[in-house]
Amino acid sequence: MDDLFAPSDVSWTPVSPKLAAVRRVSAAVMFGVLAIAGLLLLGMLLDWVYGVLAAVLVVLGYGWAWVLIGRNQRSWKYAEREDELLVSHGIMFRQLVVVPYGRMQFVDVAAGPLERSFGVATVELHTATPATDAKIPGLHPDEASRLRDRLSALGQAQAWGL
Contact 75/19 with Cβ under 8 angstroms? Predict the structure, then answer.
């Protein structure tokens, strides 16, 4: 494992590769708008050569974003332990969030239109302290529902001291 601060005895579960596809489509829309705006604005104000240059730079930026989005998707993983849920992600700046089941107040499952079209959802864990809130994007809807139900039951049992 490449995490220096993550427990080595944990079996990590990766998120779906479809998360990268969702984020790439979303980025394509954003970069496409920027490319068209740069082309039109610089083309009309200065010269069409500058507009084309701006559009090419935006397309190159999207190419770089494509690579980073894939790396970021592969960094997301989670692990269910006896008393807590671990969520790890990040490329350059790794983050490990440990959420004790007894601290969970509620668990959400969310999926926007783009996520639903790709068949993924996000599980969001809420605690009394916002610093320990966590989310796990890119889960299959069945796995997201299973995880929501399991975490809710474990959170309730831990809160009641069972």
Answer: no
